[in-house]
Write a structure and sequence with these properties.
Elements lengths: L1 E8 L6 H8 L9 E8 L4 E6 L4 E2 L8 E7 L13 E2 L5 E9 L2 H10 L10 H12 L9 E9 L4 E6 L8 E4 L3 E5 L3 H7 L7 H10 L12 E3 L4 E6 L4 E7 L15 H14 L7 E4 L4 H12 L5 E7 L7 H11 L3 E6 L4 H9 L11 H11 L5 E3 L4 H4 L4 H7 L26 H4 L5 H6 L5 H6 L19 H27 L4 E3 L5 H9 L12 H7 L5 H4 L10 H6 L4 H6 L5 H4 L6 H5 L3 H21 L1
Parallel strand pairs: 15-16, 15-18, 16-17, 18-19
Antiparallel strand pairs: 1-5, 1-11, 2-3, 2-5, 3-4, 6-7, 7-8, 8-9, 9-13, 10-11, 10-12, 13-14
Helix pairs in contact: 1-4, 2-3, 6-17, 7-18, 9-10, 10-16
C-alpha cells in the first residue's frame, strides 16, 4: 500500500516546495521510501526523476506536472520496484496504491507478447506494461484492490482508476487552473488554502448519513472516483474525455445461478490464499466472529503463517473473548489481545478521527483504529473479514426490513415522521417499518432526515435512491445495496483510513471479485435471512458447535452513550461550547440533543463531534 499525489497546472509553473509540503500529510500511507517525478505537459516531457532506483535530470524549474509517491514496501522490496515508475522510453509514469493479486499471470501473458521486465516480481511494473498493451482495458483484467494514476505523455492524458468495491480511495479536484489527484483529500485541501469551500450539499449528506458518498466530497469541485470507475483527463484541452465504469456490480446480480457449497469453499480459500502473498510477515484480525474465524481456518489449512490480533472489552456487551479463545485453541494459533481501555480516551478519539480526510461518523472507527495501531507495531499486512455481512445477509436489518409490517396496511404510520415533535426521539425507524416501500424501510437504517429537521437544515439530495436497483428481486436489491453502499462507502472508508494512518495494509478476502460475482449470481433463498451467512457456517460446521455458529452477533463498537453523556469528557465539553465551529459557523445548537438523552441523540452528537474535529484539522 502507498500514498499517491499528483498535480497538473494548466499554465503556470508549479511551486515544487509547496506541493511537497501539501502532500507530506499522507506519508503515513507509505513511510518506507519516497519518489518524485516532474514534467511538462506542453512539451510532453519528463524533466526530473528522483527515487530509490533512479535519479534523472537536474532541473526542478519549468515544470507543470508534479507526481509524488510514498511507499509501504510489501511486495518486491527491491529499489527497482519504487515509484513513481517510469517507462524506459519515459512516455508513461505510473503511481499505484494497492495490491494486484493476479500480477504473475498478467506478467506471464505480457512476456509471451514480447514485453521485457526490469523488476523481479513487482505488480507495479505489470500495470505499467499492461497499460501499454491494453490501455484502459487493463483495469477490468485486474484482480486486486487499487487506486491507479497513469500519465501518458505520448497522448497528453492522465488516467485514474479505482478497484471494483472501492477498497482504495482516489480523490481528484479540477478547476480552471489545476487538476489534482490523491489517495487523500487532505493534501488537496491543503493545496487550496483559503480557496477551499465546503459543499453545502455534501454537508447535508453527511449529517443525514454520517458519510459522504462517492462521487462527491466535502469540498466543492472535489470528487471521489466511484468504485469500479476510471476517468481519462486531457492534459492539454483541460477536459475529462471519458468517465466510465469498467466493472458494474449490477451486471452480476441475478437469481439464475444455483449455490454450491464446494464452489464457495474453493473460491473463498483461493481468495484467502492469494491475499497471503507478500514479502513481509502477515497478521489477521480475529474478532471471534464467523468471518474472521473462517479466514483463520483457511490460513491454518493452507499451512501459511499468520499471527492473529483481537480487541477485547471489559464491557461484556461488546466482549467476545470467550469465542476468540475457542478459535485460538481449536487452530493452535498465536494470538495477541489489545484491551479496549477508556484511559486517555479523548486522545484515542482524536487520533482515530485524525485518520479521516472527510468527516466520518461510524463509532466502530475507534476499536478498528486501536486494532490497526496494535498490529502495525509488528506487521505491515493484515487480513480482515470486512464485506461478509453485506455479501451474505449478516445484519438484522436484512430480515427486519424484507417484509413490511402487516403487509403495508399501516403504511400511513410512516407519515408520522413528518411531525417535528418526534424528531428529537430518533430517526423514525419504527414508523418507517410500516411503509410499503422496501427501499424506504431500508434507508431508515442509514438516513437521519429527522436530524436535519432539528438543525433546520434542508433535506438535500436523495443520494441513496440513486443507488437502489428496483429491477431486481427484493433479496438482490438488499444485497446489492449493502455491497455497493455500505461496504464501499462505509466499511471500506473506515478500514482504509484507520489502517493506513498506522501504515498497515488490510486485505479483505470476502471482497474478492470472483467470490462477489459468484455469490451475486446465485439464487440464495430467503432462508438466508433467518440462517444468516449459512455458506460461512457450513464452511466452519465441522470445527465448531451450533452454539458458536448461531450465537447473537455483537457489534464492534464501544459504549457511546456513556462517553457522550456520562464520562465528563474534556473533548465533549469544548465541542459543546460556543467556541466550536458547528456552533459558530453552522449555528447548530445542541441543547435539544443534550437534554433529550437517548441512543439516537448520542449518535447524533458523535456525528457532529466528528464534523467539528474534521474542521479543526483542515481549517484551523
Amino acid at each position: 500500500m502507498c500514498g499517491i499525489y499528483g498535480q497538473i497546472a494548466k499554465s503556470a509553473e508549479l511551486n515544487v516546495d509547496h506541493q511537497i509540503q501539501a502532500c507530506n500529510s499522507i506519508s503515513c500511507r507509505g513511510p518506507d521510501s519516497q519518489g518524485l517525478v516532474l514534467g511538462n505537459s506542453i512539451n510532453q516531457k519528463i524533466n526530473y526523476i528522483q527515487s530509490n532506483n533512479i535519479n534523472y535530470g537536474n532541473s526542478k524549474s519549468s515544470n507543470n506536472i508534479f507526481l509524488k509517491h510514498f511507499r509501504l514496501e510489501i511486495l518486491d522490496l527491491d529499489s527497482k520496484a519504487s515509484q513513481p515508475m517510469v517507462s524506459e522510453d519515459k512516455q508513461h509514469a505510473l503511481l499505484f496504491n494497492g495490491e494486484i493479486y493476479n500480477h504473475r499471470e498478467l506478467r506471464n501473458f505480457l512476456k509471451s507478447k514480447g514485453y521485457d521486465f526490469f523488476t523481479n516480481h513487482s505488480d507495479t511494473e505489470v500495470l505499467l506494461k499492461g497499460y501499454k498493451h491494453w490501455e484502459e482495458q487493463l483495469f477490468d483484467k485486474l484482480d486486486g484492490q487499487f487506486a491507479i494514476s497513469i500519465l501518458d505523455f505520448e497522448k497528453s492524458l492522465t488516467l485514474l482508476a479505482r478497484d471494483p468495491l472501492g477498497q482504495k480511495p482516489m480523490y481528484y479536484y479540477v478547476d480552471s487552473s489545476q487538476f489534482t489527484f490523491s489517495s487523500s483529500l487532505i493534501p488537496i485541501i491543503s493545496n487550496l488554502g483559503v480557496n477551499k469551500k465546503i459543499s453545502k450539499e455534501s454537508l447535508n449528506t453527511y449529517l443525514k448519513l454520517g458519510v459522504i458518498t462517492s462521487p462527491n466530497t466535502i469540498i466543492e469541485n472535489g470528487y471521489k472516483l466511484m468504485p469500479g470507475e476510471y476517468i481519462k483527463f486531457d492534459n492539454n484541452n483541460w477536459t475529462i474525455l471519458d468517465k466510465s465504469l469498467y466493472w458494474k456490480i449490477n451486471d452480476f446480480a441475478g437469481d439464475e445461478g444455483k449455490f454450491n457449497q464446494e464452489e464457495f469453499n474453493t473460491l473463498f480459500n483461493n481468495s484467502v490464499d492469494k491475499r497471503l502473498i507478500a514479502d513481509v510477515p502477515i497478521a489477521n484480525f480475529l474478532s471471534g466472529g464467523l468471518d474472521s474465524t473462517a479466514i483463520t481456518k483457511s490460513i491454518v489449512e493452507s499451512k501459511k503463517e499468520s499471527t492473529s490480533y483481537s480487541v477485547v472489552f471489559d464491557d461484556k456487551t461488546y466482549d467476545e473473548s470467550l469465542w476468540i479463545d475457542e478459535v485460538v485453541q481449536k487452530y493452535n494459533i498465536p494470538n495477541i489481545k489489545e484491551n479496549f481501555s477508556f484511559e486517555n480516551f479523548d486522545q484515542i478519539v482524536l487520533e482515530a478521527a485524525d485518520s479521516f480526510d472527510e468527516p466520518f461518523a461510524d463509532p466502530s472507527q475507534i476499536p478498528t483504529y486501536i486494532l490497526s495501531k496494535s498490529i502495525s507495531k509488528n506487521f505491515r499486512v493484515a487480513l480482515s473479514g470486512d464485506g461478509s455481512d453485506e455479501l451474505l445477509f449478516g445484519y438484522e436489518r436484512n430480515a427486519i426490513t424484507y417484509d413490511s409490517k402487516f403487509n403495508g396496511l399501516l403504511s400511513f404510520l410512516s407519515s408520522l415522521n413528518n411531525f417535528s415533535f418526534f424528531s428529537k426521539y430518533g430517526v423514525g425507524r419504527k414508523f418507517t417499518s410500516f411503509d410499503k416501500s422496501l427501499p424506504k424501510r431500508y434507508f431508515s437504517y442509514f438516513e437521519d432526515n429527522n436530524l436535519l429537521k432539528l438543525l433546520n437544515f434542508q433535506k438535500g439530495k436523495d443520494t441513496l435512491h440513486e443507488k437502489w436497483d428496483n429491477t431486481l428481486s427484493p433479496l438482490k436489491q438488499i444485497q446489492l445495496f449493502e455491497l455497493s453502499v455500505y461496504t464501499s462507502e462505509f466499511m471500506n472508508t473506515k478500514v482504509d483510513r484507520t489502517s493506513m494512518k498506522n501504515s498497515l495494509e488490510v486485505r479483505s478476502p470476502f471482497q474478492d471479485k470472483k467470490l462477489v460475482e459468484y455469490i451475486l449470481s446465485c439464487n440464495l433463498s430467503d432462508t438466508v435471512l433467518t440462517n444468516k451467512k449459512y455458506p460461512v457456517k457450513q464452511y466452519l460446521s465441522k470445527d465448531f458447535s451450533n452454539q458458536f455458529l448461531n450465537r447473537e452477533k455483537k457489534g464492534f463498537s464501544f459504549p457511546l452513550y456513556n462517553y457522550i453523556y456520562n464520562d465528563k469528557s474534556k473533548l465533549i465539553e469544548h465541542f459543546l461550547s460556543k467556541d466550536s465551529f458547528v456552533y459558530r459557523e453552522l449555528e447548530i445548537d445542541m441543547n435539544l440533543l443534550i437534554n433529550n438523552k437517548n441512543k439516537a441523540n448520542a449518535h447524533r452528537l458523535w456525528k457532529i463531534l466528528m464534523l467539528e474535529l474534521w474542521y479543526k484539522r483542515t481549517h484551523e
